[in-house]
Write a structure and sequence with these properties.
The structure holds two protein chains of two kinds. Chain A is of the alpha+beta class. Chain A is 32% helix and 22% strand. Classes of the chains: A alpha+beta, B mainly alpha.
Chain lengths: 427, 80
């Protein structure tokens, strides 16, 4: 079970996309895992042949580091931390990789969690005797889980009988719910597999609670362990916004750029020149990131936060960044993210949006060493050349790990971001 | 399209972005972004969806004229 974000301790194995004997190439999606935040597509990080699937579909609360499957690589030998676990070993900071590597070669698949049996039963219902599996859209699956609908009982009306969100909602409306949940159900510390499916409200609340718990655990760790220092700088956005307005004027609606893309690009390019901000603090030492993988904090509807990565952001054009951001936000909110996006951001950007409040002093996403924040872009008083006027400005902030860098380096970093934003045509 | 049809197209685009909203609950004269908690990416998606459905290409400088449901419908009706 790969670590899909530093705040993850367990995952639910939703689905295998491969079976023993399948030939896989690095980057292929082999499984889908549900963290408390999102459904993540797990990529394999080595070429090979799937040897054995050790954890059945539907298994809940599989600890991070558990071997999910074994993979035969080139020489024909069986690699234990293969398949999904290799994803953690290959891309995560050593701390996480060590967990996977420490596992004995003959590791038992997983400690059967108390609710494993129940989860397996429900899987069996969804895929009767492993025969033709149901076509279910990710959104429909999510809604079914939230509403407590058994997918096996739903009639699909989509393409080739696929079950859509509307089908699930219809089925939910037709279901007479079991007894109402007791008020304490949502707050009880993850009870071992209730025999009856919980009512929808309780399940949504439980999911929300799990997400808050995950965010809380990571943020508490960050605040406890990382000696943050904070810097802020007001950046003149006159040129950037004027250039953007001109640019968007000649573009069709679907090709327009958002101001946040300029900000992301400036950060990515500044990070590429400031290695001390890009990487991880692991085992008492700074480990530079390989490449600039920009974590982008995406707020989820209904609450919660997820910060997947745009890979090699410093080499991307504004159009490429816009496309990547569009895709990432859409998948973070409704669809699926990939394991590499979750496990390897080297620095994170949090952007409150153009209409947001003035500034944000962020909490570093451990084990990263820096977080850049942007507040709303708006007209503010600006003094220049002995004159007071008004200009569109944005407050750029930096929260950085004092173990890895000092305020002087941080100050130069924010100044560099400002400089880059003065030449938007070069971003 | 008449105003009612435009309103339906707009509400449809909004519910694509915020599936949990109840269209009947939208206050037609209150700020949409604030009511529905939509950000600039969401808004751009609405503008793209409106373009696809109505052919109307809303320039950026007019975004402010689509602040509420009523304003947006009036804008679209005039822009046809």
């Amino acid at each position: 079970m790969p670590s899909l974000g530093a705040d993850m301790e367990f995952g639910t194995l939703l689905e295998w996309r491969v079976k023993p004997g399948d030939v896989v190439k690095r980057g292929d999606i082999v499984a889908v895992v549900d963290t408390s935040k999102a459904e993540i597509e797990v990529e394999v990080f080595e070429d090979g042949v799937i040897d054995e699937l050790l954890v059945p579909e539907g298994t809940a609360r599989v600890p991070v580091g558990t071997v999910l499957a074994t993979l035969r690589t080139g020489g024909g030998e069986v690699t234990p931390p293969a398949g999904a676990a290799a994803a953690a070993a290959a891309t995560s900071p050593p701390e996480v990789a060590a967990v996977a590597e420490e596992l004995p070669a003959e590791a038992p698949p997983t400690q059967p969690a108390p609710d494993t049996a129940v989860a397996e039963v429900s899987t069996a219902e969804i895929h009767p005797a492993g025969e033709h599996r149901l076509h279910v859209s990710p959104v429909a699956r999510r809604v079914a889980e939230q509403l407590g609908v058994d997918l096996a009982t739903v009639t699909g009306t989509g393409t080739e009988g696929a079950i859509t969100k509307a089908d699930v909602e219809r089925a939910a409306a037709a279901v007479v719910l079991p007894t109402a949940p007791t008020p304490s159900a949502a707050t009880a510390p993850s009870p071992p597999a209730a025999p009856a499916p919980p009512a929808p409200a309780a399940e949504t609340a439980e999911r929300q609670a799990a997400m808050r718990q995950a965010i809380g655990a990571l943020m508490a760790r960050s605040k406890r362990e990382i000696p943050h220092y904070y810097l802020q700088h007001e950046v003149d956005m006159t040129r950037a916004m004027a250039w953007l307005a001109q640019e968007n004027l000649r573009r069709s609606v679907s090709e327009r750029l958002l101001p946040s893309v300029l900000l992301l690009s400036a950060v990515a390019r500044a990070v590429a020149q400031t290695p001390a901000m890009n990487g991880f603090w692991v085992d008492g030492a700074f480990q530079p990131g390989e490449g600039v993988h920009l974590g982008v904090a995406v707020s989820l509807r209904g609450g919660g936060l997820i910060a997947p990565a745009i890979h090699d952001a410093d080499g991307k054009s504004l159009d490429e960044l816009m496309a990547a951001l569009h895709d990432l936000v859409a998948r973070a909110r409704s669809g699926r993210l990939r394991s590499s996006e979750m496990s390897d951001p080297t620095i994170t950007v949090t952007n409150l949006g153009e209409a947001g409040v003035d500034l944000v002093h962020g909490v570093i996403y451990a084990p990263q060493v820096a977080l850049v924040g942007f507040g709303g872009i708006r007209e503010r008083p600006w003094a220049a050349d002995g004159m007071l006027g008004s200009r569109p400005t944005v407050y750029a902030t930096l929260a950085a790990d004092h173990r890895a860098s000092d305020g002087h380096a941080g100050s130069r970093f924010l100044a560099l971001i400002e400089r880059l934003l003065q030449n938007p045509e070069e971003l | 399209m008449n105003e009612q049809e435009l309103r339906e197209v707009l509400i449809d685009a909004l519910t694509q972005i915020a599936p949990e909203i109840d269209a009947a609950q939208i206050d037609p004269q209150a700020d949409l972004a604030e009511q529905l908690d939509i950000d600039s990416m969401d808004f751009l998606n609405v503008v793209v969806a409106l373009h696809e459905r109505t052919g109307i290409e809303i320039p950026e400088r007019d975004y402010g004229k689509l602040a509420t449901l009523d304003d947006a419908v009036a804008y679209l009706a005039a822009a046809q």
